UniProtKB/TrEMBL annotation:
Its cofactor is [3Fe-4S] cluster; [4Fe-4S] cluster. Ferredoxins are iron-sulfur proteins that transfer electrons in a wide variety of metabolic reactions. Pfam families: Fer4. This is Ferredoxin. Residues 1-31, 36-65 form the 4Fe-4S ferredoxin-type domain. It comes from Cohnella phaseoli. The keyword Electron transport applies. It comes from the Bacteria. SUPFAM superfamilies: 4Fe-4S ferredoxins. One of its GO terms (molecular function) is 4 iron, 4 sulfur cluster binding. The lineage of its organism: Bacteria, Bacillati, Bacillota, Bacilli, Bacillales. Keywords: 4Fe-4S, Electron transport, Iron, Iron-sulfur, Metal-binding, Transport.
Length: 83
C-alpha cells in the first residue's frame, strides 16, 4: 500500500510534495489520459504521509482512503510506472 495522487493535482502541480518526500519517489509527468500531474512510485513510497500534509489542494490519499470518485487514479498511477 502506498499514497496516491488524484485529480486535484492536475490544476495545481506546484510540487510541494516533492520537497518533503524522504525517499524522493514523486515524479512529474503525463497520465495515460494526457493529464499533467505528479505520480508516486508505489514500490518506493514508505507511506509516511508527509506529502499528504503539505498538498495545498488535498490531492494525496492513502490508497485505502481514496474516495470512490478518484479510484481511477490508482490505475493511472500504476500505468505511469508500468507502461
Ligand atoms: S503538492 Fe499536491 S497539487 Fe502539488 S504537485 Fe504534489 S500532489 Fe500535486
Ligand atoms: S507518503 Fe511519504 S514516502 Fe510516500 S510519497 Fe508521500 S512523502 Fe513520499
Amino acid at each position: 500500500m502506498a499514497y496516491i495522487i488524484t485529480s486535484a493535482c492536475i490544476e495545481e502541480t506546484a510540487g510541494e510534495c516533492t520537497l518533503v518526500c524522504p525517499v524522493d519517489c514523486i515524479t512529474e509527468g503525463t497520465s495515460v489520459d494526457g493529464e499533467h500531474m505528479y505520480f508516486i512510485d508505489p514500490e518506493i513510497c514508505i507511506s509516511c504521509g508527509a506529502c499528504e500534509a503539505v498538498c495545498p489542494v488535498g490531492a494525496i490519499y492513502y490508497e485505502d482512503d481514496i474516495p470512490a470518485s478518484e479510484h481511477a487514479y490508482i490505475e493511472k498511477n500504476r500505468l505511469f510506472y508500468h507502461k
